[in-house]
Amino acid sequence: MSGDPYAALGLARTASEAEIKAAYRKIAKADHPDLNPDPAAAERFKAAARAYDLLKDPEQRRRFDAGEIDMQGQERPQRRSYREQAEAAGHPYARGYGFESDPDLSDVFADLFGRRGGPQGGGHDFHMRGQDYRFGLEVDFLTAARGGKTRISLPEGGDLEVAIPRGVRDGQTIRLRGKGGAGMGQGGAGDAYLTVSVAPHPDFRREGDDILVVLPIGLDEAVLGGKVAVPTIDGPVNMTIPKGASSGRRLRLRGRGINGGDQQVELRIVMPPKVDDELAAFFEEWRGRHGYDPRARPKAGG
Amino acid sequence: MVRYYSETEVITLIEDLSPPRLKAYLSARIVHPVTTPQGLGYRDADLARLQLLCDLSEAYDLPEDALQMVMSLVDQLNTARGDLRALMRAVSSEPDEVRRRIQACLRDERG
């Protein structure tokens, strides 16, 4: 092929931008390899496409005219040939071309080529169930725990209200019957499958149907006990802290979990922000008379 | 394994494809990418199809409904050509006698 893009488009060097575009379009119409099976036409189209890529950009064209660049380096990224792919067996856009419904030849045709059914398979009495859609759906912790509604956007526009069942788990799939792609002919619509991922919550964790919460309590509350408001998935609930509770102790709020599960409350003693003189003095005195070893274990037998 | 390209990759790979143009092809249902958890997934077949669609749009300024009609014909022709190629390959490996009978039959019908 010549290295002259003007020749490839059949133009003089003085051609205007409009003339360049018109020349390329003319060649594309006549010689596009998907429209014209002649190999010579494909070569003409390839040359014209490369030339057009160079000349349609005024700066590139100026540099070429000034001799700063040549056609080298103008190689298009490999053009994808549709025809080559589309002739292949199992092509997703394969389409019937009339024999399926031919009264004399449909059987012979089916014997030779079998049933063809890409999503776009044509033909008058062609029935196919619609495509199943698959989506990922992120749900916040509380919506997953309590159930609720959310909306998702569909690939072809529009959105859809989705009911989140109470207690849905991370990784679980929700099936929406008939919410997939439309069917063809008498084929019904496909289904939509939503794979749920549950976002973590700063306070709550889930263990089976139980909800786990870590509840900070003050030194005084640990010593004296008392009533404390505890967050649950359905709002705060008052809970009695027993006298002398240690960190790590688990208390149970029955029925406050998911679907009849419990909420487990793990206590964590939090010191006051500052140990003042009064508190220090009190413990100095207290330790003298009531010291204990928090690391003592029950003696092993024998 | 099927390789899926994202919308961003597709727009980068096909020079003449702009986001609004892709959107128009999608809403006219001329391309059918696959829905994946990561969004729409485009196969090699979709890429080649989009390249051809861009070429046709550039050369003919076709509105979407005309483009859809053209693509339907292109698909029918390509499928028929693929079938015919397979049929000819099958015939070519038959013994002489069978090929002669097929030839005679075709001459009768098609002159």
UniProtKB/TrEMBL annotation, chain A:
SUPFAM superfamilies: Chaperone J-domain, HSP40/DnaJ peptide-binding domain. InterPro entries: DnaJ_C (IPR002939), DnaJ_domain (IPR001623), DnaJ_domain_CS (IPR018253), HSP40/DnaJ_pept-bd (IPR008971), J_dom_sf (IPR036869). It comes from the Bacteria. It holds the Pfam family DnaJ_C. SMART domains: DnaJ. Coiled coil: none annotated. Residues 76-86 have a biased composition (Basic and acidic residues). Residues 61-88 are annotated as: Disordered. Residues 4-68 form the J domain. This is DnaJ C-terminal domain-containing protein. It comes from Paracoccus spongiarum. The lineage of its organism: Bacteria, Pseudomonadati, Pseudomonadota, Alphaproteobacteria, Rhodobacterales.
TrEMBL record, chain B:
This is Chaperone modulatory protein CbpM. It comes from Paracoccus spongiarum.
